[in-house]
Amino acid sequence: MIKALNTASTGMKAQQTNMDTIANNIANVSTFGFKKARAEFEDLLYHTEKEPGAQTGANSVSPTGVQVGLGVKTAAIKSDFAQGSTKITKNPFDIEIQGPGFFPVQVGDGQIAYTRDGAFRKGPGGKIVDKNGHAIQPEIVIPPTAAGVEISPNGQVSIINGVNTVPQNVGQIQLVNFVNPAGLKNIGRNLFVPSPGSGVPQQGAPGQNGLGYVAQGQIETSNVNIVDEMVNMITSQRAYETNSKVIQAADQMLQYMNNLR
User: Fold this and answer.
1) Is 85 helix (H, G, I), strand (E, B) or coil?
2) What is d(CA 150, CA 133) in angstroms, rounded to the nearest whole number?
3) Are residues 27 and 47 in the same domain?
């Protein structure tokens, strides 16, 4: 029985996954702190008709074998945590991580999640929160009397109460990093949670233990390169189309076999 039908169908399925990944990258080209992903594939088991190095004579072996591949499957979808471009906003609560690290925030169920999206704001109670109201951890509260907010590169948050007053420290931003950030689990809303593949969170002040510094008044944009994604999209489309033609050709071959007299 011809195996090309099933093999080509696995190729089409793989390219569907590839296109889904590319589509998500393009859709999030304007998402702050978004990290593009890449689909990775691996070949399936082989049908072995003759082992490589099999004995072919009294004193000879086959230099190659006869192994027919049975297709492809998706092995992983890996996030690329390369630094995105910087957008200057001059908003005092926009914070960019320059280098490795994540902001820890507390989500609704009390769990700590991690994000690269530094578009923070002041909540109703004065807490620094993200766009979904998740408070940065440890919590930092800005008093209502504050006339200005200053955030140093090492994460110290200070407020200014008047023109000639000395800045008053009200908190310290902490960053978290992982041994394998690509192993983090995406849960949407620009948030990640740890998994056995990422390792345990390692927390510290910005600039310490390999963590990046923070910059106030600017924000990290998506690291998606729209030109690269367009090229990848065309390549995936052509691969999908070619696999479909393989199925058509294999189907015609089976028709020829059925019509034999």
Assistant:
1) coil
2) 21
3) yes
Neighbours of 54 (CB within 10 A): 13
Assess whether 207 and 237 both reside in one domain: no
How far from 126 is each of 23, 103, 121, 143, CA to CA, in Å?
38, 18, 9, 6
Residue 110 sits at the vertex; the CA angle it makes with 106 and 112, to the nearest 5 degrees, is 45
No. of H helices and E strands in the chain? Answer: 2, 20
pLDDT in tens, 28-63: 999 999 999 999 999 999 988 888 888 878 888 888
Full residue range of the structural domain in which residue 45 is found: 4-81+224-258
pTM of the model: 0.90
Q: SS3 for 132? A: coil
Residue pair 188/31 in contact (Cβ under 8 Å)? The answer is no
Q: Domain check: are 76 and 147 in the same one?
A: no
Beta bridge partners of 150: 158
Structure tokens, 223: 């690291």
For residue 64, what is the DSSP state?
Answer: S
Judge residue 30's burial from the number of C-beta atoms within 10 Å of its C-beta, 0-12 exposed, 13-18 middle, 19 or more buried.
exposed
Nearest-CA neighbor of 191 among 33, 20, 29?
A: 33
Q: What is the pLDDT of residues 17-27, one digit of tens each?
A: 999 999 999 99
- Can you spell out the DSSP letters for 182-204? GGPEEEETTEEE--TTT---EEE
